[in-house]
């Protein structure tokens, strides 16, 4: 976490819960995904907010995240999507009652070996139906079933696979292929006596592909208020989610740039006329990307103000001319400049910031969320 700055990240847990509720009732069982510090929203705080919301299972990535979640006081089921990567992780599955995804024969052998002394372990079997990252290939099912038969202490209770293109309207056919392959896997498992909770859908899968809802869905980005279909023909399917993260930084200095003057390193921006500029105390050291140089906007007092010149390590210059004129509200050192969210018509959506940054809201949340953070109910 970053602690050397004056950036403030404000998380609305009420909005996060409102987003979760949108899925409850539509999808049979929701597994909120809170890996990577809940996409920058705070693992423990988000888990606590979800308590009492009818959520039985939370998903994280690495087993050490699962341990941190258990230590935070979460007593429900924890799914570690990446499974154990070393002996410390393996032991933790028993010690902290963690359901781990097992994605290859090595992982299976490791937990089977530990099960000999530690006893029964419920596991999630992860299948690769097309993403080509992690998981058993469907063709490897016979060997997998043999390994399970040889290690009855390992009890598959869940099976998962991950969609590569659920958010792309022109890839519906590929989603259907993955779903069909996965259904075949589930059927084979069932015939071998393994009745598992099956899940395939992430946010986009649950929203756009009713056939992918299965027994449970793994809900990530939509819970954090970003539309997975932004910029596509399906954009309206993801509209109306509530923004959960807002980020601001202080104005440090306000002054006038005369016509023809450059600003910031390299003078990559030169004024065509006199301009009022504000220097805001945030930069790439605060995970506010340098790729926003001459491209991004901030929101000051409800007005969109463009970034002028290069984003620096701890400072960014914005054009506040429109705020400083006769009609404007004025700008002074100490005022807040919003990088994300903020008041009024200038409010900045995560999808917009991600566009200027040339990335996706996932990365915006993970990176900006490392700054000093507070949570409101
Ligand atoms: C991160 C993740 C999700 C959540 O995806 P979103 O697109 O954020 O909803 C679901 N499943 C797996 C395996 C993941 O790694």
SSE map:
Layout: E1 8-12, H1 13-23, E2 30-32, H2 35-40, H3 43-50, E3 57-62, H4 63-71, E4 77-83, H5 87-95, E5 99-102, H6 105-118, E6 121-127, H7 141-150, E7 154-161, H8 172-191, E8 197-199, H9 203-208, E9 217-219, E10 245-257, E11 262-263, E12 269-270, E13 275-280, E14 297-300, E15 303-306, E16 316-319, H10 321-324, E17 336-340, H11 350-357, H12 361-368, E18 373-376
Parallel strand pairs: 1-18, 2-9, 3-4, 4-5, 5-6, 6-7, 7-8
Antiparallel strand pairs: 1-10, 10-13, 10-17, 11-12, 13-16, 14-15
The structure holds pyridoxal-5'-phosphate.
The site of pyridoxal-5'-phosphate has 12 residues, from helix 9 and strand 9.
Structure explained in plain terms:
It is a single chain. With 377 residues, the protein is an alpha/beta fold. It folds into two domains: 13-228, Alpha-Beta Barrel (TIM Barrel); 245-376, Lyase, Ornithine Decarboxylase, Chain A, domain 1. Helices cover 30% and strands 24% of the residues. The protein has helices at 13-23, 35-40, 43-50, 63-71, 87-95, 105-118, 141-150, 172-191, 203-208, 321-324, 350-357, 361-368, and strands at residues 8-12, 30-32, 57-62, 77-83, 99-102, 121-127, 154-161, 197-199, 217-219, 245-257, 262-263, 269-270, 275-280, 297-300, 303-306, 316-319, 336-340, 373-376. Strands 1, 10, 13, 16, 17 and 18 form a six-stranded mixed beta sheet that branches. A six-stranded parallel beta sheet has the order 3-4-5-6-7-8. Strands 2-9 form a two-stranded parallel ribbon. Helix 1 packs across helix 3, helix 5 crosses helix 6 (105-118) and helix 11 packs across helix 12 (361-368). The longest helix is centred in the middle third of the chain and has 20 residues, at 172-191. The radius of gyration is 24 Å and the shape is elongated. The mean pLDDT is 97. The structure holds pyridoxal-5'-phosphate. Pyridoxal-5'-phosphate (PLP) binds at residues 33, 35, 81, 162, 202-204, 218-221, 228.
